[in-house]
Amino acid sequence: MTQNSLHPANGLAQADWLAANLHRSDVLVFDCTANIVADENGVEKVVAERDAFRQGHIPSAQFIDLQAELSDADSPYNFMLPTAGEFETALRKFGVNHDSIVVVYSTGNPWWATRIWWMFRQFGLNNAYVLNGGFRYWQHSGFPTESGEATPRPTGNAQAASERNLAIDGDTLRSRLGEPQLALVNALPPDKFSGKSRVHGGRPGHIPGSVNVPAASLVDPETGLFISVPAMTAILSDKQLLNPGRNVVAYCGGGISASLVVFALTLAGQENVKLYDASLSEWAHRDGFPLETTTTD
Predict the structure, then answer these.
(1) CA dihedral defined by 254, 260, 262, 266, rounded to 10 degrees?
(2) What is the mean pLDDT of the chain?
(3) What is the pTM of this model?
(4) Confidence at residue 162, expressed as pLDDT on a 0 to 100 scale
(5) Closest to 120 measured CA to CA, from 107, 102, 106, 108
(6) So where are the chain's domains?
(7) Sheet architecture: strand order including 182-186
(8) Which residue has the higher pLDDT, 44 or 259?
(9) Do 12-140 and 167-283 have matching folds?
(10) Of the candidates 226, 224, 228, the residue with the CA atom closest to the CA atom of residue 138
(11) Percent of the chain whose pLDDT exceeds 90
(12) Which CATH number does 167-283 carry?
């Protein structure tokens, strides 16, 4: 991909490409940063980082509150997929058109952005790209920023297409445990995978048969950039996840960091990949849904 390319390549937008194309009316940029914080009693809540957006963001960017604006409001779990109609309505509100090039980023962990990239794909849309390095690398590169509220855009005409069935629910996954072609990958840090630390207050551990590919291991901690595709491929291949005959299911605590592993698998060429949407937010709280703990990966 060069600065003169009309579109970013392979789901990933580089900062220099965005800087060179930011003037285009069909290039729409969104900050989707959020965090999960716990109070002194351990009660967790989702915090959309809108205040940080007001302090500084990429010029012309808008802010997306993933939980409030792009998730199922009726689900008992955070961040669950909305209906296709709800997703389409939200995109139009943000001014997204059928020919828009959508670039999403976060100010911290990139899995907030890969989650939205994955949602676009789930609803049959191929026009979303993740900004490599996010806002951190954008600033480090010396590209311009602005502060204050976002400027609203005219209502768009985006239309969700046929759903691609890229998600799996807990009951279906439980019924498939033990299938030889099923490959489970847990995207959480090693201490949560092993069961040393709990996830969202549920039972500790991971779904039996899982391998661990921490989402953070796919990002350069110094720059915030994704590691190279060959490096990703090596990690995923070592875990035996790159095989056209395998059906890969990625999960985490709530369907967010696992989206980064899905993104990496897609960049590496693995086609049969699903995301367990509710992940351990559901699984670790349901009776009869097995978990195991380990002392090593």
Answers:
(1) 160
(2) 93
(3) 0.94
(4) 78
(5) 102
(6) 12-140, 167-283
(7) 167-168, 273-276, 247-251, 182-186, 210-212
(8) 259
(9) yes
(10) 224
(11) 86
(12) 3.40.250.10
